[in-house]
Amino acid sequence: DTGVSQDPRHKITKRGQNVTFRCDPISEHNRLYWYRQTLGQGPEFLTYFQNEAQLEKSRLLSDRFSAERPKGSFSTLEIQRTEQGDSAMYLCASSGQGGHLNEKLFFGSGTQLSVL
Amino acid sequence: AQTVTQSQPEMSVQEAETVTLSCTYDTSESDYYLFWYKQPPSRQMILVIRQEAYKQQNATENRFSVNFQKAAKSFSLKISDSQLGDAAMYFCAYLNYGQNFVFGPGTRLSVLP
Predict the structure, then answer these.
(1) What's the rounded Cα separation, in Å, for the pair A90 and A112?
(2) Which among A43, A100, A103 is the nearest to B103, CB-wise?
(3) Min CA distance, B91 vs chain A (Å)?
(4) With CB atoms 3.0 to 4.6 Å apart as the test, which of A49, A62, B57, B71 could cross-link to A32 if both were Cys?
(5) Region class of B98: left (phi > 0), else alpha (psi between -120 and 50), else beta
(6) What is the DSSP secondary structure assignment for residue B58, as one 8-state letter?
(7) pLDDT tens for chain A, residues 1 to 116
(8) Omega of the bond prior to A8 within 30 degrees of 0, cis?
């Protein structure tokens, strides 16, 4: 168990560019979550997968955001035509080890996005 | 929709003393989970403690304990014998199984030597 890993740790991009982040959850976890966090705020839910199915997507999420989890393992989050307001820490988390009695959310270290 | 409220943006405690962080939540569900997460300056989110709503007994993890009042929808975190390493942002979170985790806005805890 190597924990949840996210890549890259930091991303600086120019406004209007597309960016893609990757998350590798804990291997036996079937649920994967993406959150966004700005400084001094709590994590804000973006979207959630159970295996490869995207079960929920925040209404706050613009059409410029898309996430995939094609084989129910790693996930990618893409932001198209980035805006300065997209600057934030993007957190990935996973959970699910054989039943809800053991529900815990394990977080990666996050990807810090800066849009110039 | 479920909401989580943390009414204390900042708290401070003297080293070795006890501090309580407050959390209230809103839900119509009867079966759910509540969590406290710690986020130090490294920004890595770390699970501190978890409570299942169907359990009446308050959860305890070493120096950390909760006061879970289901009828009042209150879930406070008590940190005993505070240490300098406890300084961090603390987030209360709610989960209804099969849905996503909802986080509160956080409380920044400072520990004074």
Answers:
(1) 6
(2) A43
(3) 7
(4) A49
(5) left
(6) P
(7) 569 999 999 999 999 999 999 999 998 888 899 999 998 889 999 998 989 999 888 887 889 999 999 988 999 999 999 999 999 999 999 987 544 545 678 899 999 999 99
(8) yes
Closest Cα of chain B to A43: distance in Å?
Answer: 6
Q: CATH fold of B3-112, please?
A: Immunoglobulin-like (2.60.40)
Q: Can you tell me the distance from the alpha carbon of B92 to that of A53, in angstroms, rounded to the nearest whole number?
A: 27
Domain spans, chain B? 3-112
Q: DSSP assignment of A32-74, as one string?
A: EEEEEE-TTS--EEEEEEETTEEEEE-TT--TTEEEE-TTSS-
B78's tokens? 């008590």
Q: Name the residue facing B33 among A37, A103, A107 (closest C-beta).
A: A103
Q: Does the beta-carbon distance from A33 to B91 stay under 8 Å?
A: no
Dist CA B68 CA B98 (whole Å) = 22
Alpha-carbon span A47 to A68, nearest angstrom: 10
- Local structure of A28: helix, strand or coil: coil
> If you search the block for the tokens 């943390």, which residue do you land on?
B6
Two structure tokens written together for A82: 């980035």
According to DSSP, the β-strands at A111-115 and A10-13 are parallel
